[in-house]
Every structure is written in structure tokens, then in C-alpha cells.
Design a protein that fits this description.
The chain has 8 helices and 15 strands. It is α+β, with helices and mostly antiparallel strands and 349 residues long. The chain has a 5-stranded antiparallel sheet, with no helix packed on it. A hairpin with a 5-residue loop joins strand 11 and strand 12.
């Protein structure tokens, strides 16, 4: 793998994936803090620690400890200290040979460098080759990733030990290794596997629906009006949609939908898209209502409405649904649609 020297082996890839996961978990934890927790957390970040005797909210401190943002030590009788836990730091890569001109290396200015780093996370735990350029066969068997020309895609390949196209130590051929990589990318969120050559995979890193929608949505403070659109395609039954997206007009809704993995698959299948602007009543959910999640098709019963949803941007229109599989899911109201009685299998039981 040419993305970085420190990730040229299995342990290096695992370390990189661990750093990315820890970084994401910390962002989620910080976004989910309550008001009292935010106030205590701000003091802990500034001073490095908080302690009893300054009338800090102990319940909030315990919540921060559970989130891994501070390390709480209680001594009993209302005496405690809580040390600030710094964010995860990525280890510096060791020296690496200069990469070829078409290879994305960490820290380079290549436009696909970020996508190549994400590809490492998708391949976490797999052996990585030590090749240093497009013509280098390397000495260690493993996967490599490099940009596929100017197409915006990445090529993923496998090189055997010392560059010989023979089965590896586990007896797997190159095609079998590529099949494993294809399954890993299909499972990972935000990846689309496209037809490629016999010796490589062609993968594209695509944004989530929320990220794609934010690219085209007009910010409210700029005076624009953003509506909610139900995006359909010609392969769906009447009344169904495969995505709901916030956008200023139908063209922007199509753009956001087609930037996602689902939208690309729909277009590849040859379906024509359509969009319908939703009314306010279409987005109102009621406690006890039977609903279906638009993207996944999972059904359930609404338990709560107007639930705060945290993330890159906070929302106050969350809906908590008790799914039929005895689990719960909280998502924005636009992600749920009413479940027609004729399609509700629970009512037949």
C-alpha cells in the first residue's frame, strides 16, 4: 500500500483504523454533550482537570467520564478529581521511499489522498504490500491502492510475495484476494465498487446522503428556502421513494441523490429519477404511528417525536421508533414515511 509507509503491514493498517475510529467516536461524544456537560468540559479543556470544591456538576462529570472525555477518580465523601483526556493523536509515519507520480501518499496534495486514506480503513486488518510506485513489485505480499488515472476512482490490487503472481501463503489466488477486498468495500459505508480489469478493483468513495445534501443546500441565514424532496425512480411502485433530501429545488435534490452510493446504483440500473416536494403534513409523525425507514425499509412504531439529533449539524426534529426487531432507532422525521396498513405485516399477526 503506497498511502503511507507506516501502514505497509497489517499492524500499521490496524493502528490507522483504530485512530480513525477513535477520532470519530470522540467527535460523536462531544456532539452529544448536554448543556451542563459542555460547561464542565470547557473548564476541563482549559485547565486540564476539574475537581470537587468548585461546585462542579458531579452528574455531568460522570457523564463525561462515561464518554471517555475525562478520567474521573472519586475518593469518597464528595471528594473527586477529573483529568481531561486529550484527543487521539496519529503516530507519525516512518521514512518511506518516494512514490511514483500516480500514487496517493499521505500528506501529499493529490486530490484523492483523503479517499486513499479511507480505503485503508476499509482494508483494515488485511496484509498490505510494500510497493513504492506503479512499477514496483515489492517484497511483501499484500494489497495496494492508487488513483485510477483522472477518473476520480481508486484502483485496488494485490501483489504476491516478491511480485510473483502465485498464490500467497494461505493458498489464495489474486482473484480470491480481490474478491475479499470487493466484499470489504461493499460492506464499508461510502464505497461503490465499479467494473474494473481482471487484475484490479475499481472503487469510488461517495459521500453519505447528509454530506451530499449539505453540498447543495442553501444555508438558512443566507435567505434561501430549502424544501424536503422525495426522490423516486422508475423501478419503484407508486407512492414509494428511495431517498428524502433537503434541497432548494428539484435539480439540487437530484444532484444530492446521485452523489450517494444508492443514487449511483440507481443510475447504473438505467432508472429515471423523479422528485416531489413534500408538504409539512408529510413530515409530521405521531406517537403510536406505524412507519417505515425510507432508506433501509425497516418498520416500527413511533415512540417519541421532537427528539434532538446530534451530529455534524444538530437537529430538533428527531423521531424515536421502536423497530419490529426489538431495537430502537432515532432519526430525523424526513427519514420516516407512513406504513400503509396493507403492507404492515405486523398487523396480520
Amino acid at each position: 500500500m503506497i498511502v503511507s509507509a507506516g501502514w505497509g503491514n497489517e499492524s500499521g493498517a490496524a493502528e490507522r483504523a483504530g485512530f480513525l475510529n477513535a477520532q470519530k467516536e470522540r467527535e460523536r461524544a462531544e456532539a452529544a454533550l448536554t448543556g451542563p456537560q459542555r460547561r464542565v468540559y470547557a473548564v476541563a479543556k482549559r485547565d486540564g482537570a476539574v475537581r470537587s470544591g468548585y461546585r462542579h456538576n458531579l452528574v455531568a462529570v460522570r457523564g463525561l467520564h462515561a464518554s471517555g472525555l475525562v478520567r474521573l477518580t472519586e475518593y469518597g465523601a464528595g471528594t473527586w478529581t477529573a483529568a481531561y483526556v486529550p484527543p487521539p493523536v496519529e503516530e507519525q509515519a516512518v521514512e518511506t521511499p518516494e512514490a511514483g507520480p500516480d500514487v496517493a501518499r499521505a500528506g501529499s496534495g493529490h486530490p484523492l489522498a483523503a479517499a486513499a486514506l479511507a480505503a485503508l480503513a476499509a482494508l483494515a486488518g488485511q496484509p498490505l504490500a510494500d510497493v513504492a510506485g506503479p512499477d514496483d513489485c515489492g517484497e511483501v505480499a499484500g494489497y495496494w491502492v492508487r488513483p485510477n488515472g483522472d477518473s476520480g476512482r481508486l484502483a485496488v490490487g494485490w501483489t504476491a510475495e516478491k511480485g510473483k503472481p502465485v498464490p500467497g501463503a494461505e493458498g489464495r489466488s489474486r482473484q480470491a484476494r480481490l474478491a475479499v477486498a470487493e466484499e470489504l468495500f461493499e460492506r464499508a459505508e461510502g464505497w461503490l465498487v465499479e467494473p474494473g480489469g481482471d487484475d484490479t478493483l475499481s472503487v469510488r468513495h461517495v459521500p453519505t446522503l447528509e454530506a451530499a445534501a449539505e453540498r447543495v443546500a442553501v444555508e438558512p441565514d443566507l435567505g434561501g428556502v430549502t424544501d424536503t424532496w422525495a426522490v423516486t425512480h422508475s423501478g419503484l411502485r407508486d407512492g414509494r421513494c428511495f431517498l428524502r433530501v433537503e434541497a432548494p429545488d428539484s435539480a439540487a435534490a437530484f444532484e444530492a441523490a446521485l452523489a450517494t452510493r444508492t443514487g449511483l446504483l440507481v443510475r447504473r440500473a438505467g432508472h429515471r429519477l423523479g422528485a416531489r416536494r413534500l408538504r409539512e403534513a408529510d413530515l409530521e409523525r405521531r406517537v403510536g404511528e406505524r412507519v417505515r425507514h425510507v432508506a433501509t425499509g425497516r418498520t416500527g412504531t413511533v415512540e417519541a417525536v421532537a427528539v434532538p439529533v446530534t451530529g455534524a449539524r444538530p437537529y430538533a426534529d428527531g423521531v424515536t421508533v421502536a423497530l419490529d426487531g426489538r431495537s430502537r432507532k432515532t432519526a430525523r422525521a424526513l427519514e420516516w414515511e407512513p406504513l400503509p396498513a396493507g403492507q404492515d405485516h405486523e398487523t396480520d399477526r
